Structures are given as structure tokens and as C-alpha cells.
Amino acid sequence: MVMMRRRRAASAVGAVAALLGALLGARRPSARPAPICDPPSVSRPEPALDAPARPDWLLAEHRYIALARWLAAASARAGAPAPTLDYVRGVIANKENENAQSIRDLEPLVPRLDPVADSARFRVVLKTLADDYMKTYRYGDAANALERLYRASAATMAPADRTDLRSELLLRRALRDAPRQRTVVSSPFAIPLTPNAIGLRDVTVHVGRDSSKWIFDTGANLSTITETVARRLRLHVITSGSTTSGITGVAVPSRVAVIPELRIGAARVENAVVLVMPDSMLDIPQIKFQITAILGYPVLEALGRLAIGTDSLRVDPAAGEAPSDSSNLFLDDLSPVVSATVGDSTRLFHFDSGADATLLTVRFCRAYSTLLSGLDPTHTHIGGAGGDKTYAGYELARLPLAIGGHQAVLDSVFVMREEAKTPFDAYYGNLSGTMAARYGGYTIDFRAMTFRLGAGAR
Questions:
Q1: CATH among 3.30.300.180, 2.40.70.10, 3.40.50.720, 3.90.79.10 for 182-301
Q2: Please, what is the angle between helix 64-76 and helix 82-95, to 10°?
Q3: pTM of the prediction?
């Protein structure tokens, strides 16, 4: 659970936000009726199927499956512009965790794009490359890409977007000289996942002679520790000058450190980057609980295939599938996104094991408003370290859906009727790890890019 930008990633502050909805306040009827769903703050009319702007619209709408189909169709017909095909191919490769391929497709486009005439694609290409470099531990190259983007485009950006870009740039600059992460899994292993007081699960992490419990969180963009833990581990902490915001919008000074080596079961991770947060920002006074450490991306991604059962984590570097048309997992920056079918439509949902409740966004509210017909408006508290906020919406008693060929049912899910400025606003909801618990857990494979219900899934 890491914090990054408002739109992009879950933060250490916000990563536990969804899980705390039930802990921080009961849902109760709203005092007055409300429209079923608020309209979008930014309207993006859908272009025609053959319009040149079609791929850009699909990307902006996070419709990656449709974008891949567009690419296949465009590649098969004559006359499709080669730069556009390379652009879409590189972006899709990034979403599918094929970062080396994405770099090969996108790097040649940078000098060919005009920052003014091709401003939208120029921004996407540099942001995507920065993400590719980050995921391949080329921190200096990531900083360089964002510096180029900031110089060329900051003056024309909306203030909030400019602030987000600057914060991300400063964080990458702080890591410029950091050594690359290296992960070795010497043999298959299984280790316990133990429940903690806030309904999440902990995994034991060893750093030198220190052994401690870290929250297991696929929704964390970077692993995170408190200042107290950083001092105990005698880490060199770097102040980046940037800030990060959680789900409540609280800005937190961003500092980073590199752990020379940490061990999880039979896995050894060298040069693991962690965010270092003030203890107070990871304290949950409402229930008197102090979060001390969170294990997230990119450490979990480097393990490859994770089978998360009700009480155990299994890692087998030799197991897994090959990437195929059945792949249903994508990465938006450092956040896992899962495709799920509701009714006759396939939508993308953010997945966060560090949440104890599934939340559906206003995008879901608009797309499936008929499911909410006749429901009374309610509201819920969502929060965590740094505070909590109240959101209006509807309680949906039952929602059937299919994930990776497996039929599932979500019970008692809250549907927001307003844009909430959460990390998962761009999707149709935030699926929690507890959602999968009733099916024996789940398997997430960062090589085949698949998400399956059931910890024994292949």
C-alpha cells in the first residue's frame, strides 16, 4: 500500500481506508434523497469505432481489453499509422507487465512527438516510460523521463496534476542513485498469514536479525515502514521533498529508504525500496492500533506467483501459466487491476488485499443504476490514519460476478454515488482480499498476469 498520486495509487495512509469503513462508523440512512449517481466531472464523448481518437479515448477510460482488440484489428488492416500502432502496443505492454517490450516500443517515439501538437500522447509516453523504468529499477531514467515531461508540460497542466507530477518526480530523484532491486527465490515455500487487530493479515519479514510482522498488501504501491522501524533497522532515510496523499486527502511528507536485504520465507530481496512515514500517520487511534510496516509492490510482484490462502502464502517460482488470452490482470502504474464480468459487461476493478470491504465507485453506479433502483440512500465512513471522510451511496445486498472464469457473489457492498477522489475512482470498484476468502483465497500471477479465485488455482 503505497501512496503515490491521488488518481493513481493507494497510499500507506489510504491503503487501509476501505477496510476501516466498517470499523469507523455504521451506515445509516441519509437525511434526504439524492440523485442515483452524480454525473462525471469530466465528460469524454465516445468517438466512432474508426475515429483516430478512438485508442486515446479507450486508454483514458481504462478500457484495456477493448484497446488490445483495437490494436489487433488495426494491425490487421492496411493503412494504420505505424506511430499509432507502436504507441498503443507500448502502452498495452506496460499494462501487461511487459516493461522491456514497452520501453522498446515507446522510446523511439519520444523525439518524434511534439510536446504541444501531440501533447496528450507526449505525456502518456513519458509517464509510461517512467513507470517502465521504475518497475525495472532504473530510477535515474524514471527521474529523467519525468523531468523532461515537467519541463515541457507543467505550465499547461491543471494545478493538481502539476502538483502530483512534481511529487512523483521528486520521489524518483531521491532514488536516482539507489541500487537495483534483486530477488532470488531459492525454493518453493509456504509461510503463515496471521490476522491482526484491524482485520488484515501479517507476514513475517526478516531484516538482518530483526523479525517483525508486516501487513500483506497487494494494493500498496511501495512497501512502507514507520520512522521508528527505520531507526531500529538503522536505515539511511532520504527526504525527497515530495508529499503523498491518502484517501482522505491528507498530504504527508515523503521519505524513502533502501533495505539492503529482506527475507520472506525462501525469498531474498536485495535493495528493497520502502517509504518511511511518521508513526502518527500510520496510527489508527480509533481502535488504538499502530501500523508499523506494510509489504507491497514491487516486492510482492518480484515473487512472481502468489497463492494466498485463508491462513498462508505460498510461492512457487516454477509454477504458473503462460500469458494468454485468459490473462485478466493489468497494472496501472504500481496498482493491480482485475477484469470482472457483471451481467454482460466486463469491467476493471482495482484489487487491494489491504481492504476488508469491497467498495464500488460512482462509475459502477452510473453503469449499473438499474441494480440500485428502489434502494434508500445511505452513507458510510471511510478512513484510516490521517482521518476519515463520509461518502454517500447505496448498499447493494448481493452482486453476482465472474472473475477469471469463476462465478462469485459479493454480499453487502457499498456503491458510491459521488466521485470520492479515491485511488480507485478510475475503475468500477476496489475489490478486497476478504472478498476472495470465502472461496479459499486467491492466486495472483504477475508473470502470466492472471487473477484466480482459490489459492490452489492454476
A1: 2.40.70.10
A2: 150
A3: 0.87
